[in-house]
Backbone:
C-alpha cells in the first residue's frame, strides 16, 4: 500500500454540497481522494465525482502555457480553434500585455458599454471578487455576471422581493429535522448526491414524510409519501392550489401572518381561482393529491421546501419561486430549525461568486449598483474618484451575448465558463461569439467557447491554489493548494491582479484600486471590510473552526445555521398575488414533446472538466430519456439512434427508454458537444430574472 507523503484537506470542486475532501499526495502527485468520517458536510461520504473526478488535473489536453491565435480574428469571421496548430505559445508578459492593449484600445474606442466579463462559479470567492473589481474599477462597467443567471436567477429575484435574502434559509443537514419536506424541480440523487443521502435518511430513519413534485419520476419518488407528476411549467397552479386548500381549510398560521408578513389579503384573493380542479386541468396532477399534499405540509410541525432548477429555469421562473415562498409564509414554516425555503445551488461556488459581486445589478454583498450610497462606499473602497463607478445596471450573461455587435459589447473576458454549451439557442450564441471583436478565455482546457478566443490564459486548478468556496448552505470553506500549478498555469487571482496593473498603467490611472495582494486571505479581508455578512470570516478562523456559515457579523460571531429567526432582511415577508402563465412554447402537432435539460451524476455542465476525466468512460455518450409508452408509439427501441428537433436545431443521439421520464416529456443532459442539448432550447427569458426556459422547449422525436 502506498504511504502518503501528505494529506491535504480541501473542498470538492464540483457541486454546491461542498463536501470535505482529503487529497493524498505522493511525489507531488495526487493519487487518491478520501473524506474523513467527521467531515461536517458529508460525514465521509462522497459521490463518484468527488471521489474519482479529480484526474482532469493531469489530462494531457490541459493547456499549461499562454496561447495566442496565429491568425487575427475579425468580427463576423471568428472561428473555433481546437487544434493547437492554430495557436502559438507566448510568455505571460506577452500574453497579458496583448490582452491589456486590446481591452484598453476597445474601451477607449467604444466605451464601457463595449466591455463585459463572465465570472465563474467554479472559481474561488477571491478570484470572483477581483475580476468584478477589475471590470468595475477600471472599465467602469457593471456588465459582470456568471452562470447563476442560467440556474437560480429567478429564485434569487423572487426571494429578494419577498423576504430580502436569496440564500438557502437553513442548513442542508437539517433535513433530518423535517417532519415533512417538499422536493420540487430537483433531482438530488444525480445533482446533489450527498444531500440525497441525507434526504433518504430523513425518510427511512427519522420518519419524515416526503412530497415530490416533478415532471420526471426521479429516484426520490421511491422514498415519497406523495408523488405529484406535474406537467412542465405548471408549478404556479399546483402550489397555488395547495395555498387555496390551506386557506379554505383554515390551516394557515394566523399569528405568523399577522406578526411577520404583509399583503396577505391581496394574495389570498388571488388564490380564489386556484381550485384543485383548476390546477388538475392544467397540471395533470390529481386534485386529491394536491389536497393531501396541502394538508400534509400545512399541518406538519416542521416543514421545508427544497428546490433546484426545475423551478427557476422558466419564462415565468420568478412566479414559480414566489408560489413556493407564499406557501412558507402562509404556514410559518420558516425562521426555525428544520423548516425553510431552500434553493439548492448547483455549482461548488455559485453562492460565493454571487456573494462576491459577480452580478450585474449588485456589488459584493448584494448591494445594488444603482443606489448612490453603495456606489460611494465602493468608490472609497477602491480609491476611485466620486461618481467614477457606473450607476447603471449591467447586462446579464444572456443579454451580454445578445448585445454583441456595433453599439453593444465588443470585448468579452470569460473566466472558467462555457457559454457555447450552456447558453440557450446555441446557433444564435455561435453567431454572437463570431461577432466579437476580442475574446479572452481563462481556463484549464480549450473548450467550445475558448476555441473562439484570441488569447488563452492557462489557469491553475482548484488543487493548485488557495482560496475559499461558499457552498449551498452558505458555508465558507478553505480551498487549499495541494500541488504546484501544472506547467506555467497560474491561480486566477494572480492572473487578474497582474493584468489589472497593466490595464491601469495603460489607462493612465495611477494606483486606482489595490492589486498588490500577497495572498488570497488579503482579498477576503478586503471584501469583509465592505460586506457585513463576511465581516467575521478570516482565513485564521477558517483554519481554526472549519467552515463558517454566513452571515458572520464580526470576528466573534459564530455564523448562522438558519436565517430569519426574528425578522426578514426586508422587514415583513411579502405575499405576492399570482396568475398562471403558460410556458413560452407549448406542444403541438409538429413538436409534441416537452424537452427538459439537466445533468447526470457523472458529468458537470458543459463538460470542460468531467469530459477530460475518466468519469467520461462511465457515461460516454449523450442519451435522450423517453417514456416506454412514447417510444412504443414511435417504434423506438432502447439504444436506437433518434433525431430530436426543435424550431431552432436538431441533434442525433441514442434513446434511453425509461419510465423515469413521464409521458410527453423527454430529457437530455447538456454535457455533450456531439449532441448539444442547447441547440434545441429557446432563449425566451423570464422578464424579471432574465433566465432562460431550459426546462420547456418543445421538440419532435423521430428515428434517425
Ligand atoms: Fe462533490 Fe457534490 Fe459529490 Fe459532494 S456531492 S462529492 S460536493 S460532487
Residues:
Amino acid at each position: 500500500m502506498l504511504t502518503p507523503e501528505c494529506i491535504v484537506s480541501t473542498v470538492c470542486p464540483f457541486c454546491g454540497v461542498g463536501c470535505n475532501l482529503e487529497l493524498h499526495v505522493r511525489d507531488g502527485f495526487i493519487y487518491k481522494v478520501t473524506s474523513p468520517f467527521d467531515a461536517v458536510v458529508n460525514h465521509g461520504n462522497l459521490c463518484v465525482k468527488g471521489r474519482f473526478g479529480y484526474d482532469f488535473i493531469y489530462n494531457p489536453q490541459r493547456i499549461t502555457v499562454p496561447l495566442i491565435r496565429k491568425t487575427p480574428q475579425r468580427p463576423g469571421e471568428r472561428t473555433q480553434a481546437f487544434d493547437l496548430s492554430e495557436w502559438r505559445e507566448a510568455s505571460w508578459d506577452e500574453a497579458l500585455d496583448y490582452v491589456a492593449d486590446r481591452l484598453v484600445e476597445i474601451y477607449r474606442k467604444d466605451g464601457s458599454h463595449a466591455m463585459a466579463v463572465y465570472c465563474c462559479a467554479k472559481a474561488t470567492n477571491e478570484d470572483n471578487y477581483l475580476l468584478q473589481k477589475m471590470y468595475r474599477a477600471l472599465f467602469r462597467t457593471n456588465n459582470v455576471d456568471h452562470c447563476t443567471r442560467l440556474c437560480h436567477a429567478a429564485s434569487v429575484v423572487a426571494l429578494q422581493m419577498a423576504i430580502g435574502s436569496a440564500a438557502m434559509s437553513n442548513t442542508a443537514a437539517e433535513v433530518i429535522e423535517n417532519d415533512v419536506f417538499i422536493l420540487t424541480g430537483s433531482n438530488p440523487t444525480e445533482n446533489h448526491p450527498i444531500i440525497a443521502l441525507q434526504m433518504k435518511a430523513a425518510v427511512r430513519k427519522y420518519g419524515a414524510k416526503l412530497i415530490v413534485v416533478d415532471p420526471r419520476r426521479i429516484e426520490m419518488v421511491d422514498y415519497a409519501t406523495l408523488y405529484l407528476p406535474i406537467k412542465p411549467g405548471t408549478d404556479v397552479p399546483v402550489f397555488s392550489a395547495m395555498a387555496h386548500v390551506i386557506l379554505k381549510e383554515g390551516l394557515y398560521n394566523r399569528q405568523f401572518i399577522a406578526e411577520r408578513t404583509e399583503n396577505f389579503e391581496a394574495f389570498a384573493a388571488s388564490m380564489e381561482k386556484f381550485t384543485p380542479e383548476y390546477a388538475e386541468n392544467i397540471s395533470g396532477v390529481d386534485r386529491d393529491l394536491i389536497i393531501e399534499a396541502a394538508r400534509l405540509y400545512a399541518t406538519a410541525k416542521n416543514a421545508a421546501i427544497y428546490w433546484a432548477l426545475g423551478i427557476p429555469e422558466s419564462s415565468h421562473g420568478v412566479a414559480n419561486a414566489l408560489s413556493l415562498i407564499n406557501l412558507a409564509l402562509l404556514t410559518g414554516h420558516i425562521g426555525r430549525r428544520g423548516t425553510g425555503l431552500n434553493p439548492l445551488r448547483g455549482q461548488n461556488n455559485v453562492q460565493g461568486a454571487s456573494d462576491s459581486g459577480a452580478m450585474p445589478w449588485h456589488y459584493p454583498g448584494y448591494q445594488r449598483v444603482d443606489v448612490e450610497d453603495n456606489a460611494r462606499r465602493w468608490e472609497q473602497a477602491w480609491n476611485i474618484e466620486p461618481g467614477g463607478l457606473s450607476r447603471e445596471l449591467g447586462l446579464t450573461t444572456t443579454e451580454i451575448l445578445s448585445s454583441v455587435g456595433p453599439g453593444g459589447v465588443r470585448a468579452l473576458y470569460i473566466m472558467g465558463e462555457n457559454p457555447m454549451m450552456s447558453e440557450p439557442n446555441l446557433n444564435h450564441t455561435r453567431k454572437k461569439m463570431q461577432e466579437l471583436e476580442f475574446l479572452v478565455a481563462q481556463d484549464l482546457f480549450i473548450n467550445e467557447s475558448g476555441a473562439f478566443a484570441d488569447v488563452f490564459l492557462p489557469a491553475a486548478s482548484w488543487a493548485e491554489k488557495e482560496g475559499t468556496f461558499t457552498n449551498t448552505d452558505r458555508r465558507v470553506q478553505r480551498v487549499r493548494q495541494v500541488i504546484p500549478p501544472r506547467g506555467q498555469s497560474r491561480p486566477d487571482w494572480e492572473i487578474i491582479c497582474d493584468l489589472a496593473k497593466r490595464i491601469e498603467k495603460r489607462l493612465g490611472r495611477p494606483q486606482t484600486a489595490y492589486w498588490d495582494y500577497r495572498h488570497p486571505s488579503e482579498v477576503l479581508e478586503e471584501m469583509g471590510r465592505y460586506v457585513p455578512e463576511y465581516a467575521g470570516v478570516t482565513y485564521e478562523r477558517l483554519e481554526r473552526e472549519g467552515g463558517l456559515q454566513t452571515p458572520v457579523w464580526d470576528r466573534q460571531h459564530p455564523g448562522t445555521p438558519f436565517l430569519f429567526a426574528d425578522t426578514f432582511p426586508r422587514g415583513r415577508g411579502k405575499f405576492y398575488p399570482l396568475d398562471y402563465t403558460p410556458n413560452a412554447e407549448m406542444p403541438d402537432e409538429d413538436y409534441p414533446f416537452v424537452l427538459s435539460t439537466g445533468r447526470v451524476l457523472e458529468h458537470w455542465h458543459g463538460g470542460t472538466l468531467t469530459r477530460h476525466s475518466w468519469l467520461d468512460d462511465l457515461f460516454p455518450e449523450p442519451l435522450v430519456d423517453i417514456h416506454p409508452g412514447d417510444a412504443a408509439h414511435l417504434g423506438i427501441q432502447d439504444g436506437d439512434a433518434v433525431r430530436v428537433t426543435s424550431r431552432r436545431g436538431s441533434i442525433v443521439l441514442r434513446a434511453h427508454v425509461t419510465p423515469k421520464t413521464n409521458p410527453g416529456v423527454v430529457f437530455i443532459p447538456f454535457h455533450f458537444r456531439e449532441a448539444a442539448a442547447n441547440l434545441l432550447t429557446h432563449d425566451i427569458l423570464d422578464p424579471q430574472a432574465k433566465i432562460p426556459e431550459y426546462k420547456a422547449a418543445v421538440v419532435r422525436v423521430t428515428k434517425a
Notes: The mean pLDDT is 96. The chain has four domains: 6-58, 67-148+351-549, 153-344, 593-703. Residues 12, 14-15, 17-19, 42, 46-47, 49-50, 193-194 surround iron/sulfur cluster (CB under 6 Å). The longest strand covers residues 650-657.
